[in-house]
């Protein structure tokens, strides 16, 4: 009887130990030898929250790339690696591995990185854009896109700066613009209401050769998967208004926490930061 009781206690202690070990390994992001993506190792990396060194950048990039490939199932989906608040060296590490599209939120930070890094980087501006900074931004020769256009006045300023910079002529590509859509009704994040997207998109499409309407972008409230469907629907409305096929317009949606869902909802471009470069201090978008 006594022996039996001791055996039970032993078994319980063993079980408790196993659970604790499992929990510790899980929170450290241990994936054992499971194939990438099955257990979404990307999430485990982000929950560990360690600042990424260059080795970690390589690891994070590789995992995100394989998760994208798995979710895309052969479809072409662009990864924009979001490097805000991260050192130029971290961008260089990813660039060395063949990642060329990078996203930045702040004009000053982008100016500094653009001058420190090689010109084959393709920069995407994904932050709030103040009109007095448009010219500086557009003059970065390897800026390929501004993804946060939410007014026709801003589009006009960008178009004239792009024209002054010679974009869209003499072999220089036009600058890609995305209409930012507020799909979660969160005014703080910017963007036009879905119903207003066709009008702004038509305005951009008529702005001349220096810019090109590349598609729609949304941030969406965390956990609001309906945001992806709403951006998808907004694209159909825009395409119908312009008389072009839906597929001619891109959908930039999905971040570290939800890029696989976004891809399953038709994203053509995802913006992933912390899973590649490590967590950031809290900030305003
Ligand atoms: C910071 C940022 C991202 C990347 O966020 P993560 O959660 O780190 O992947 C994507 N899009 C926008 C607009 C951002 O500001």
UniProtKB/TrEMBL annotation:
Query: By its UniProt entry, which InterPro entries does this protein fall under?
Result: Ala_racemase_N, PLP-binding_barrel, PyrdxlP_homeostasis
Question: According to the UniProt entry, where is the signal peptide?
Answer: 1-29
Cite a single GO MF annotation.
pyridoxal phosphate binding
Q: What range(s) does the Alanine racemase N-terminal domain occupy?
A: 68-281
This protein's UniProt keywords: Pyridoxal phosphate, Signal
Family the UniProt entry places it in: Belongs to the pyridoxal phosphate-binding protein YggS/PROSC family.
> HAMAP family, from UniProt?
PLP_homeostasis (MF_02087)
Q: What is this protein called?
A: Pyridoxal phosphate homeostasis protein
Organism of origin: Symbiodinium microadriaticum
